[in-house]
Amino acid sequence: MYKLILIRHGQSEWNLSNQFTGWTDVDLTPQGIEEAKQAGRILRDSDLDIRYTYTSYLKRAIKTLNYVLEEMDRLWLPVYKTWRLNEKHYGALQGQNKKEAVSVYGEEQVNKWRRSYDVEPEPLADDDPRHPKFDIRYQDIKFKAARPATESLMDATKRIIPLWNVNIVESLRQYKQVLVVAHGNSIRGIIKFMKNMSNEDIVKLNIPTGVPYLMELDNEMQVISDHYMGLSEEELKAKQEGVANQTKA
Predict the structure, then answer these.
(1) Annotated catalytic, 227?
(2) How is the chain split among helix, strand and coil, in percent rounded to 5?
(3) CA-CA distance, 7 to 239, in Å (whole number)?
(4) Rounded Cα gap, residues 68 and 33, in angstroms
(5) In angstroms, rounded to a whole number, what is the distance separating the alpha carbons of residues 188 and 229?
(6) How far is CA 56 from CA 86, 96, 100, 138, 181, in A?
(7) Which of 23, 35, 221, 232, by CA, is between 20 and 30 Å from 91?
(8) Catalytic site residue from 13, 34, 70, 87
(9) Which runs of consecutive H residues, i.e. helices, occur in 78-152?
C-alpha cells in the first residue's frame, strides 16, 4: 500500500485579511506557523514513515513544510519544489478582499471564480508588474502555462497532472510514503483527479489550512481510503465552514 499525505499551508497573512492570494508570495501568520507545527506533531505521532516531500514555489507552503519537518525531526528529507503545485492564479482578483469583491461583482460571480472548475477570473494585464513573466522564479521555465495571467481550477489541475504522472507516482513507488504541502486549489485539483470527482462535487470541497489529509493507494495508484488526521469531526467541520464562508457577510 502507498500513502500520499496532503497538507494545505498554514494560515497566511492574506488568509487572515481575507484577500485573494493566488501567486502573490505572502508569508505565514503566527497562527499559520502554529498550524504547521501542529500538523508536524500529528505526523510525528502517527505510524507514518514519510521519505520524500513536494511543495510549491511560494513561501507560505515552503515554510509550512519546513515547520512540519522540524516537528517530525526530518529536516533531512529531500524536497522537490515546483511551480506546478502553486495556488490557482486569481488574475486581477489578487489582492482584493473577498467580501468587498462580492459587493462589486455579486456573490454568485465571486463564488464561480473561487469554487467552480472551469471559470477563470479576469486576467492580469500583460504589463501588470504582478504578472509571473516578470518574476525570476518563472523566467527560465519553458512552458507558457508556468506564467499564467489567470487560471481556473481546471487550468491548475492540468498543470498538476503531469507532475503526478511523472514525478509523484515514481516517488511513491520508490519511497512508499510521500508528503505534498501545497495550496487550497492545487490540493483540490489533486483530489478531484485522484477521486474522479465531478465538476459539480468539486465546488463543495473546502480544504482547511494546516490539517494533514491521508490518501491510501493500491498498486494501481487508485484511492482505497482517505481521511483527515488529528481533528475531531466537529473541529474539521468548523474549519471547512470557515473556508466556505469567506465571502459571506
Answers:
(1) no
(2) 45, 15, 40
(3) 14
(4) 9
(5) 17
(6) 5, 22, 28, 12, 7
(7) 35
(8) 87
(9) 98-105, 107-115
Asked whether the whole model's pTM tops 0.90, one would answer yes
| Contact assessment for residue 160 and residue 189, using Cβ atoms and an 8 Å cutoff | yes
Distance CA 182, CA 64 (A): 9
Q: Give the N- to C-terminal CA distance of the chain in Å, as an integer.
A: 45
Instruction: State phi, psi for 80 to the nearest 5 degrees.
Output: -105, 115
pLDDT tens sequence across 184-210: 999 999 999 999 999 999 999 999 999
Q: Establish whether 233 is a catalytic residue.
A: no
Dihedral pair phi/psi, residue 228, rounded to 5° = -80, 155
* Residue 89 amino acid letter: H
**Distance (Å, whole) CA 218 – CA 231:** 25
Q: Please, what is the Cα angle at 16 between 71 and 180, to 5 degrees?
A: 40
Residue type (1 letter), 117: Y
The active-site residue out of 9, 89, 131, 183 is: 9
pLDDT at 140 over 90: no
5, three cell numbers: 499525505
